[in-house]
Amino acid sequence: MKREPVHRRSCLTLLGGAAVAAPLVTHAQQPAMPVIGYLDLGVPETQTYLRTAFRNGLGETGLVEGRNVEIEFRSGNNEVGTARREEFAAEFVRRRVALIVATSNGTARIAKAATTAIPIVFYGGGDPVSDGLVASLNRPGGNATGVTSIGAKLAGKQLGLLHELVPKATHFAALVQLETPFATTLIADLQAAGAAIGRQIDILTAVSNREIDAAFARLVQARADALLVTTGGLFETRRVQLATLAAHHNVPTLYSVRAIAEVGGLMSYGADVSALMRQVGIYTGRILKGEKPADLPVMQPTKFEFVINLQTARTLGIEVPPTLLAIADEVIE
Known about the structure:
Elements: H1 3-29, E1 35-40, H2 48-60, E2 70-75, H3 83-95, E3 99-102, H4 105-114, E4 120-124, E5 144-148, H5 155-165, E6 171-177, H6 183-196, E7 200-206, H7 209-221, E8 226-229, H8 233-237, H9 239-248, E9 253-255, H10 258-262, E10 267-271, H11 273-288, E11 304-309, H12 310-316, H13 322-327, E12 330-332
Parallel strand pairs: 1-2, 1-3, 3-4, 4-5, 6-7, 6-8, 8-9, 9-10, 11-12
Antiparallel strand pairs: 10-11
Helix pairs in contact: 2-11, 3-4, 5-6, 7-9
């Protein structure tokens, strides 16, 4: 008779202990929220549309920033050289982020040099195979995959559109971001494209904001009739500076991204960058959910956008040929 209360007390103590311990066990088993390290080149204020597109793609896989995933953004602020990006990549590796997003081929190479274990998803304009990011487009291998705008391969088409806009022009110039891994190939393509239409083409280079100003000064001194601004992370982030300089010097200019035409640039022809960054977000979500970068082929654009800013054309006193207006994907009035 006396043992029953003791037995009952023992049971209550065990149950009470289990009740107290249960929340602790449940809490300990909750998975930590994955952290994405996002590394770009430009000033954050100029990257809003790309970051929004990335978040949209991530959301399509069910991942929402602040709810079930965290994103740590680091920006190179258009600084010349790689030291700052190397520092950020090393920081991400030390923190053991779940994945690194790199918004240029050069930045992706820095991330890849910092880690062979953490997955990397990149967006770039050059050839990721020749840049050493992947073994092949269909079978990337290793820890990196992503999308390429193939912007470096569009020089011939872009120069042709510019020539059609100003058919009497005899002296063209092209602005190239010299720091990009594919700059040498791009310059060779530009020279070949100029020779194909029988026109002189001067190559201007820049790796910083000040060098963009200096390039336009050389352009004016050389009396170039028109300018092609090629693909490059620096140029995407300095779009207002480029559009303003071209208008100030009254130089007909074609750009590689529509965002520059949207802020006053005359024309643009290139891949839909927002769609590519959305795909970067989708790939990021798929990898965080278990897929391997080695198994996800590098995506290439299937659509290219040709945009004409008629308001800028009127300001420059340029009459856009009907043939160009007819093939434009968008005409900004």
